[in-house]
Amino acid sequence: MTTSSNFLQPDLEAKVQKELEEIKKEQERELKKESIRKKEGEFYSTYKEDEVYKWFDERSKRTELLKDPSVQSSNQPKYLIKGGNICKGKTDILFYIHSKNSNEKNRKAIRQTYAHPENFKKLTVRIVFILGKGANEEEKSKIIKESEAHKDIVQTDFEDNQRNLSYKVLTFLQWVVDYCSSPVPRYIVKVDDDFFVNPFMLVEEFISEVWEKENFVACHYKENSHVVRTKTSKWNIPESAYPIKDPDVFPKTCSGYTAIFPGDLVPVLRSISVDTPFIPVDDAYLFSVMFEKLDNPQYKQILEGMTLNKDMGLQDYSGNKRLQYMSVSAWGDITEMMNILWKGTMKHLTTLGKQLINEKRLPK
């Protein structure tokens, strides 16, 4: 007679074997990185250009059954600017950026530096700025003109304030399914509009770790983040949306100023959003409440490669050593900061970066 445990044993063994293989691959990646850092002279990379392209071209396709795109969250905002022309053909990297209507300088600096469409010789980079509705007629008019000029803005009809940032998450997830899914972008890089991202370091040191994984995010990872219940706080989360637990925490989440995840995860998260109670803290809404509904979600801590301290970032990009920070706060004079960090990026290109960059973008 065969017991139920006999049926379960092969599945358990396969799961353990898969976890051991992941651990081995992680160790091999860390050893590879260490060997890179020990090289002297030119900023050497053990990766070659051809190897990079398989990270974009050889991702396996997901097969989940998804909800019909017309079935939406009851909180889904309505489009004011659809951004229907942003994705045409394949998209290798999509920079997904939460931006305020008034931050036109930030968007301009981003377009001219790290998210410029011609940064890479072969990889296709696109940007989408997610905005709420304008505060007045002058602001509305400016956003329409900016959108017509650059075709990288998606705007929906919610009031743009701190308590409504999660509407930007819903907007983005629905927009990808509606207008950017033929095919979906290979990788999503969620960024705040006052941060700089080194695109070549992003590919070499971070996408290199994401490409074989599914329910995965690389970010400033946090465990057991306290859930704010103070009603007067802008971070307050009502019990009706997220029931009190013991302890009252988000078990796993990300700080969303820079986070990297596979693009094919977006339609899955959009389906999840339909039945997920709305909470007004965008990072927790996306990376905790929605992510915890995925099958075996994985988080990669990349805090060592990011800094909220702009002075540390400037020191890193102005020095002569291999760069430490892929993501740097550019708070303050955004135009000056972005230009300094972009020049530092050019100065610190690795051997791989020099193969990937479009020659048009090299300093003259």
UniProtKB/TrEMBL annotation:
Highest taxon of the lineage: Eukaryota
> Does the entry feature the keyword Electron transport, yes or no?
no
What are the record keywords, sorted? Coiled coil, Glycosyltransferase, Golgi apparatus, Membrane, Signal-anchor, Transferase, Transmembrane, Transmembrane helix
Q: Where do the coiled-coil regions begin and end?
A: 9-37
Report the InterPro entries cross-referenced here: Glyco_trans_31 (IPR002659)
Subcellular localization: Golgi apparatus membrane
Q: Which GO terms describe its biological process?
A: protein O-linked glycosylation
Name of a matching Pfam family: Galactosyl_T
Q: Which segments cross the bilayer?
A: none
Bilayer topology term: Single-pass type II membrane protein
Q: Might you report a single GO cellular component term?
A: Golgi membrane
Per the UniProt record, which EC number(s) apply here?
A: 2.4.1.-
Citing just one GO molecular function, the answer is: hexosyltransferase activity
**What is the first-listed, main subcellular location in coarse terms?**
Golgi
What does the similarity note say? Belongs to the glycosyltransferase 31 family.
What is the protein name for this chain?
A: Hexosyltransferase
- Organism of origin is Mytilus edulis
Specify the taxonomic lineage.
Eukaryota, Metazoa, Spiralia, Lophotrochozoa, Mollusca
